[in-house]
Structures are given as structure tokens and as C-alpha cells.
Amino acid sequence: MKKEETKYLKWYHKIGYGSGDVAGNVVYALLTAFVMFYLTDTIGLSMGVVGTLIAVSKVFDGVTDFFFGRMIDKTHTKMGKARPWMLWPYIGCAIALVACFAVPTNWGETAQYIFFFISYTLLNAVFFTANNIAYASLTALITKNTNERVQLGSIRFIFAFGTSMLIQYITIDAVQWFGGGADGWRIVAVIYAIIGLVVNTISVFSVKELPKADRGMEKERAEEHKLTFLDSFKLLLKNKYYVIICVTYILTQLYSSVIGMGIYYMKYILGNEGLFSDFALAINIPMVAMLLVLPLIIQKMGGMYKLNILGYVIAALGRLGVMVAGYMGNIHLMLAFTVIATLGIAPLQGDLNALIASCSEYTTLKTGHRLDGMMYSCSSLGIKIGGALGTAICGWLLDAAGYVENAATQNASTINMLQILYLWGPTIICFIVMFLLSRLNVEKANKKLMEEKNIDKTRTVYGNI
Description:
By secondary structure, the chain is mostly helical. It contains 19 helices and no strands. The longest helix is centred in the last third of the chain and has 37 residues, at about 330-365.
């Protein structure tokens, strides 16, 4: 008879943990969907220059992701390893988020670029990095139960996409309600920052890291501290599943970023920027619905591997449908195929954190070293590089095509570029992710390693190997 894995969490722990993605997405959703639009069509800055500044900022991000991941791995406090890094940096997140949407309108253009660059870099490379890696790492630190990890992933992304949907749906109207222009954007950013700060604090104190994560691991701690940053980084790269999941994470966030640029597509091709809210609903409502039942589907299918691949086959076909409908000019068909594509994307979004935990366990099983913090750096790295690089690339391409902010009509080159970005871009990304997922059967690899080492998963904490 098959043994059941130990359960570690009550329902309120899961809800409390998942609510942390409300805090994360008042930052992420606002930035990816609206920061470029705010800077170009409200402040009047060049799309190409802003895109370049965002790309340059990623140089700092590439270093800090692994730095904070390493710091989390080396941290041992009464609060645990990750929770302190989730709590305090969010204060900086809140301040820097407001600063990104409070570029002084009476400053010179060069000073405005500098102000935005410093605010954006501090937000992404420092505060959001520390908070987000710590938050993601908690999946592996508060439970060792695979099904609970999937549930945590589903619940957090329900909060994430619910928050994203709400922000995308109400922000434009909220800005206008608060007077529009730069003042309206600043007030909305302040409100979102306060909400994020409150919810993040609640999330931190709603869970506790497992005592077993520290019990009986003195030898392991000593070995961890002997590892240099470079040694730890090499261990990550030796884990092929980590490399795949990292690239996949970047691509999924690149997808979200390109979709977020849809506000330009709605404004200049469909003729109504308000349609962005309708497409946001077509993405987020199916996403939340699928995530509600995802743990049950994964149990029925016996794991994440086949479901993720099947999901992205559906997603790729759905985006092909959006492309055809877009060139036909049929908005209703575009919305319908957007729903289909979203249903296909949802499984990976829900089990991504569980997959990273499995990748981390693979490293532990192979080497005996726990690198949860550095392993989960791929989540922050993916969000920032994928999201920001997507925004930057879109900015460069539209600028090169001759985009003119607030123009009554855009030139033919800009219209073509918007179609390439919004219709072709997401479709191509779906096909690439589908291929990568076919190489990501880490569950099977872990099972084989445990059989070789005669490990009983229902009893063993991987860190004690």
C-alpha cells in the first residue's frame, strides 16, 4: 500500500502564504503593464531611451539575484532563513515603486532619465530581488510535501493573477479618477505600495519555516559555509534541470511582458485602449479558474510533466488562433482564443514553484548540498530579466519603427511592429517553452535517484541525506 506524504500545512497557512503574491504583483503588474506607457505618454520620454535604461539595469540584476539567493542560504535566525529577507526589503519596494511613477515633471529630460533609472534599479536589483527570492524559497522551507507545494503554487498564482487582473482592469480608470496625468499615476502608485506593504507583512507572519530544515544539519551547515559563491554557482549550472527551468521562467515572463505591451496594440490598432481591460479579463479569469482545480488534475495525471507539455500544446494553438483573428480584425475571436491559450499556460504557472523545489531536491540528492535560496533565484531572475527585457525590446523595436507618443495615427511601420510583437511574439514563445518542457522530467530523475539511494520520500527530509 502506498504511503502518504506527511502534511505540514493547514488551509490558513496556504492562504496566508499565497496572499504574498498580492504584494509582489502590485509591483510587477504595475511595472510590466504601465511603466513604459506612463513614461512615454504621460512624462513624454523617449521609448527607445527608456528601453535602453531598463536593459542596462538588468546588468545589476544578474549579480544581485544570485547574491541574495546565497545570502538566504547562509541565513539562520529565529524567523528562519527566508522570512527576514521577505519582510524588510519590501519597505524599500514600496518606496521605490512610488518613485518609478513619480518622475518630477519640472525637471530636465536628462534628470528625469537619471531619476527613473536609479528608482527602477533599486526596486528591481535590490529590494524586489531580496523579497521575491525569499518568498519563492519558502515553498521548499515550509513543507516537504509535493502536493502541498503544488497547492501553494496554485494558491499564490491565483492571488497573483487576481491582483494582476484587477490592476490591469482598474488602473487606467483609477488614474483618471485621481485627476489624470502625472499626479494621478503617483497617487495610484502610493495606494498600491501601501496595500503591498500591509499584505506582505501579513504573509510573512502567516507561516513558519520547518524546524526540520535546521534540525540535525550542523554538518550540512558547515559544508554549506565551506562552499564559496562560485562553488555554489557551479553546482547550479551542473543541474541541467535548473538551467532549463531558469530559461523557461525567463520566457514565461517575457511572454507576460509582451502581452502587457498590448495596451499600445489596443490603442493604435483596435482603436480603443480600454479594450486592454477586456483582454486582461480574458487572460486572468481562466487562469484563476484553472489554478483552482490544478492540484486535482496533477494528482489524476500522476505528476506535472505530461500536463505541462499538453498545456503548452494548447497554448501554442490558442495563440495561433489569436494571430489569425487579429489579422482578420475580429475582436471576439481574439478574446476567445486568448481564453484557450490561457487555459494551456495555467498549469505551468501553478506548478512552477513546485518544479523549482524538485530541481533543488535534484541538486541535494546528487551532491548533498542544499541551495534552496540560490535555486529560487531563477524565479526573481526570470521575472526581472524576462519582464524588463521584454519591455526594453518592445521599446527599442517600436522606437526604431518610428513610434510617436499620443499620435492620432501611427505610421505603417509601427503598426506592423505592433502586430509582430503582440500576435507573433507570444506564439513563438509558446512553441519554444513547449520544447523546453519536453526536457524537464525532473520528477522522474528524482524518483530514480531516491530508488538508487534507497530513500523513502514519505519519511525523509531531503536536507538530511
